[in-house]
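Z., the sequence and structure:
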Amino acid sequence: MDPINDDELARRIQRGDRDAFDTLVRRHQDRIYRLATAMLNSSHAAADATQEVFLRAWTGLPRFRFRSTVFTWLYATLRNVCRELNRRERETGELPADIPDDGPGPGRGVDAERRLDAVLRTIRQLPGRQRDVVLLRVFEDLSVAETAVALGMASGTVKAHLNRAMSRLREADKRISHEVQE
């Protein structure tokens, strides 16, 4: 039996089907969490953002009009949630209490960990559209066409944003490589 597509799940959710919602959450929670982790400064903030996205999905999907894909709608919701969390953090001056500083992860050396941290920091600092393009193209492996649809922009614009973003990421990688060698 073919798995139910997202549009059909959304229709079922609109009729109040909790099992359909559970299926949608299982299908997309890891992907949304990965994107949130790349957008935010901590794994706990990413988990909170992921939870908030699906809370909003439960209340918002009944009004979903199928003008985009369900994933595009979830991603737009995630962007809004992350902006709110980042704004709240800037306004209160509080950093999340859980920012880990427990050394390199399993199987990673200190240098690799520093490079990854620098790349993620650079991604978080990219202008919004560049960051969105990188997250969808690189982290989620969407095609240029899929990324264009998800973000509501032309394919050429996606390529231009990706090009600029990758230049910045290469510069950051060179900088950290130089620091590691010293």
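Helices lie at 6-14, 18-39, 43-60, 70-92, 110-125, 128-139, 144-151, 155-181. Residues 95-108 have pLDDT under 50 and may be disordered.

Let me know what you think.
H.
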